[in-house]
């Protein structure tokens, strides 16, 4: 089975109203749709651009993102339905009760919306923004197979992708937001590690540009990439395609899932098959939550891991 994926290197800049955000998002979706893509990935914290909307010239606080949740969902869901694509709408900060969560959203062509809260939070997210970590890992079943959304810092923890692969995910979408090359390389190098350990694809992208009035979003260093296992059927450097660093652009690539199945059984190394459960636990059997397309919904997070 093959699927075509696109990833957006989203250019953050100051805007005056929500319509300007909607126009920019729509431009990227239309660009990817011209290549007949099936999945479009936006970066983490893409909606922080909305915090630059201000009459005073001062950026809004992170808590105000929750005010845009309905408009955000309506925009991305409408585009997914109109263009018949799955859109991983980056992440958006939502409020549930009195808590804020950094949540990746999967918008389906049939109008359903899936959510995956970020599980590991950076010090800035916790201390400066008061965000609460999620408590469950979810796998989403699509006509093109099972996928997972593992956001930025989460990809640096090998246990999560082990669990996702154990539940059948072949493609990991990893929206990210990093402010310098150090942070970018942490995400990039660990993404490569996850593809080697689990023999999966990782599709990743990050924000670029700057929001001068929004705290902790003044610097962005990003590059989209489709990362593969390092074995003979794939590119030698494990990169199927990548963007130009810090350029406003969209990349597109075809993923051949049959190659994953081939290397898991007959590759130069068979890392997934050769795990030593006599030495360590089988994380692939951890209890997670699989959500078929017809059951996607916005739900409270439950403790599962």
UniProtKB/TrEMBL annotation:
Residues 3-257 form the CN hydrolase domain. GO terms for molecular function: hydrolase activity. Keywords: Hydrolase. CDD domains: nitrilase_Rim1_like. Pfam families: CN_hydrolase (PF00795). Belongs to the carbon-nitrogen hydrolase superfamily. NIT1/NIT2 family. This is Carbon-nitrogen hydrolase family protein. It comes from Chryseomicrobium palamuruense.
């Amino acid at each position: 089975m093959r699927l075509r994926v696109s990833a957006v290197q989203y250019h953050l800049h100051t805007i005056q109203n929500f319509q300007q955000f909607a126009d920019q998002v729509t431009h990227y979706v239309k660009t990817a749709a011209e290549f007949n893509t099936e999945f479009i990935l936006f970066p983490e914290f893409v909606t922080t651009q909305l915090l630059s909307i201000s009459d005073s010239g001062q950026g809004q606080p992170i808590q105000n993102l929750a005010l845009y949740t309905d408009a955000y969902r309506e925009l991305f869901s409408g585009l997914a339905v109109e263009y018949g694509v799955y859109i991983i709408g980056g992440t958006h900060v939502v409020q549930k009760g009195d808590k804020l969560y950094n949540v990746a959203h999967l918008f389906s062509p049939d109008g359903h919306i899936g959510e995956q809260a970020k599980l590991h939070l950076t010090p800035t997210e916790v201390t400066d923004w008061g965000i609460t970590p999620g408590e469950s890992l979810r796998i989403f079943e699509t006509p093109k197979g099972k996928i997972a959304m593992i956001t930025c810092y989460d990809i640096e923890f090998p246990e999560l992708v082990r669990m996702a692969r154990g539940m059948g995910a072949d493609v990991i979408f990893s929206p990210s937001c990093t402010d310098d090359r150090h942070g970018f390389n942490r995400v990039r190098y660990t993404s490569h590690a996850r593809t080697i350990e689990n023999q999966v694809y990782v599709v990743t992208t990050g924000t670029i540009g700057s929001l001068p009035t929004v705290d902790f979003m003044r610097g962005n260093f990003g590059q989209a990439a489709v990362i593969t296992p390092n074995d003979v059927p794939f590119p030698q450097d494990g990169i199927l395609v990548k963007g130009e660093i810090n350029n406003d652009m969209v990349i597109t690539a075809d993923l051949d899932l049959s190659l994953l199945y081939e290397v898991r059984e007959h590759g130069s190394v068979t890392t997934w098959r050769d795990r030593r459960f006599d030495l360590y636990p089988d994380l692939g059997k951890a209890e997670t939550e699989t959500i078929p397309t017809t059951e996607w919904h916005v739900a409270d997070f439950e403790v599962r891991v």
